[in-house]
Amino acid sequence: MNPVNVVPPVSVIVATIEAWPTIQPCLDRLLPQVEAVGGELILADGTARGDGGPPAPMNGYGSVTTIVAPHTSVLALRARAADAARSPLVAFTEDHCVVGATWVSSLIDSHGAHPHADMVSGPVTNGSSQGLVDWANFLMTFAEFMPPVPARPLRRTPPMSNASFRRSVLIGPPLPEGWLEVVLSPTLAHEGRLHYDNQIVVSHVQPRRFALALTSHFDNGRACAGLALPHIARRDWWIRFVTVPVLPWILFVSVVRSLRGRRAPARARLSLAVMGLLCVAHACGELTGLLFGEGPSARRLN
């Protein structure tokens, strides 16, 4: 564990609203890497009972810093943990992700090699590839970030499953809920302040039943649109509002384009029929968020 007066080279943040041991595979891969570089690992626990992290009697997790905030969304948990982070580099992944064997050291090296990049990200692979719904759920968010990523500029914003930032671009504290996801990341990507490194790989492990996939993508659409409301101009609100009817098609075409040139398995391509319905669910969520705000959707995201 780092002494309080020593600045760690990286702060890695994972938020969860799921009870232990959901996060254990994530921690077990992350913790040795973080300790090897002298970094800090922050677990932000938003479960109702504060039981998202390792039970107290368990050994091996003593260096994990835990922030407990019951009934808090993962978006707000990330913001709180970022406020508490002590490193000049702040990295994020998700509780259902397993990072690559050199993820921590690679992102430190990548930031060092690209001093003008305020954000670094990398590929995401599908760790739940058994069913069509699993593939559809994955492709909706991560199709563009499947390896190998093409040399062309990215069309979408890299996800928080695999993202790191220089602390100098974090406003606050306190950081607003959702600001990292809906304001900072898109801004840095749009302004060319993002470096994408194919060596920084994360596996996304999130099997889904169809009904849960539908509600998850509705909630994602509503939360993102609702939390963006305080940060967008009225003109931008109208643009997003009038384009909602064609948003499912935009999302679908984006995924299809992302699959070009990749050796995606047959299941991935067959899942496009299912994914079309997820695109509609996401668009319905965006419309609801634009009209009524994020509501309870942000707290349901995991």
Please provide the count of β strands: 10
Q: What kind of sheet is the major sheet? A: 7 strands, mixed
H/E element sequence: EHEEHEEHEEHEHEEHHHHHH
CATH architecture of the largest domain: Alpha-Beta Complex
- The figure for the number of domains is 2
Strand content: 5-15%
Query: What is the CATH C level class of the largest domain, in words?
Result: Alpha Beta
- Average pLDDT figure: 94
Low-confidence stretches: none
Over all CA atoms, what is the radius of gyration? Answer: 18 Å
Shape: globular
Helical percent range? 40-55%
Number of helices: 11
Structural class of the secondary structure composition?
A: alpha/beta
Characteristic key phrases:
302 residues; alpha/beta; Spore Coat Polysaccharide Biosynthesis Protein SpsA, Chain A; 7-stranded mixed sheet; 3-stranded mixed sheet; 10 strands
Describe this protein's structure:
- The protein has 302 residues and is α/β, with parallel strands linked by helices.
- The chain folds into 2 domains: 1-122 and 158-206, Spore Coat Polysaccharide Biosynthesis Protein SpsA, Chain A, CATH 3.90.550; 209-302, no CATH class.
- Helices cover 43% and strands 14% of the residues.
- It has 11 helices and 10 strands.
- The chain has helices spanning 24-36, 74-84, 103-113, 132-142, 179-190, 210-228, 234-243, 247-259, 266-270, 272-292, 297-300; strands spanning 11-16, 40-45, 64-68, 89-94, 97-99, 119-121, 124-126, 163-166, 194-196, 202-204.
- The protein has a 7-stranded mixed β-sheet, with helices on both faces. Strands 5-10-7 form a 3-stranded mixed β-sheet.
- Helix 1 links the parallel strand 1 and strand 2 (40-45).
- Helix 5 packs across helix 6 (210-228) and helix 8 (247-259) crosses helix 10 (272-292).
- The longest helix is centred in the last third of the chain and has 21 residues, at 272-292.
- The protein starts with 10 loop residues before the first strand and ends with a helix.
